[in-house]
Amino acid sequence: MIEAILKYEFLQNAFLSGAVIGIIAPLLGAFIVVRRLSLIADALSHVTLSGIAAGLYLGQTVPTMATINPLYFGMLFSVGGSLLIERLRSVYKHYQELAIPIMMSGGIGIGVIFISLADGFNTDLFSYLFGSVSAVSRGDFYAVIAIGITVLVTVFLLYKELFVLSFDEEYAKASGIPAKAVHLAFIILTALVISVSMRIVGVLLVSALMTLPVAAAMRVAKGFKQTIWLSILFGETAVLIGLISAFYLNLAPGGTIVVTSIVLLFAVILWKKDRN
């Protein structure tokens, strides 16, 4: 396995990208779960799919667009979707959770339209849906690194604000924290992380990487910081085991990563129950 990684660039891209995603996805997921916004990852992943489908369609129909990575269209759509979710949350102040299914439905609808225009599913789109070890390019890896550094720096600088905002939004506003700006920055970062995770985990399964490691960590952690560290540990473990399994078994990595995450979750639940 190590010889193969050293020999083939696509394996280097996949494993290094996976290692970074295994850190930043559960890191943001910890804040998302605490804020009870777990489904937002599903909504943004479907919006990202519509952007990727649009990029693939434009690549087929407009020759000058063929050189542009569809992932960038996915990022653009995902960020736009995150901003629209925030706008809808302000419109439906007493029913803010409506914003998520609205965007999810819109993302699916637009995605289906572009997929139909592009004559259905092709190999590229399939790799975005379920992830692919061989599809991660060097450009994808650089995008993951850039977004990973941005996430780590932002969380480090705004940790206190994010922490207070996650547990008590009203207190955060009363204490002078620019809650709207902080939340906007957080939701945009979440959109970017979801979009760059597509190549490894896939559109349909990316939300699991942001929530399952956190769910496992919450069963054993004694505080929020410990929850974050354990979430990253479980996320990294799931990604590495999932990628190795996908390589040897010739499977889509999204499925192996998520199944590994579920196994880890149930193992933690059973271990905790046995201790109690």
From TrEMBL:
* Membrane-spanning residues: 14-34, 39-58, 70-86, 98-121, 141-159, 171-194, 200-221, 228-248, 254-271
SUPFAM superfamilies annotated for this entry? ABC transporter involved in vitamin B12 uptake, BtuC
Main localization of the protein described in the UniProt heading: membrane
From what superkingdom does this record's organism come? Bacteria
Q: Which UniProt keywords apply?
A: Membrane, Transmembrane, Transmembrane helix, Transport
Question: Where does it reside?
Answer: Cell membrane; Membrane
Membrane topology type, per the record?
Answer: Multi-pass membrane protein
Q: Does the keyword Lyase apply?
A: no
One of the GO BP terms on file: response to zinc ion
- GO cellular component annotations of the record: ATP-binding cassette (ABC) transporter complex
Q: Which PANTHER family match?
A: ABC-TRANSPORTER METAL-BINDING PROTEIN, METAL ABC TRANSPORTER PERMEASE
User: What's the family?
Assistant: Belongs to the ABC-3 integral membrane protein family.
Which named protein is this?
Metal ABC transporter permease
From which source organism is this entry? Domibacillus mangrovi
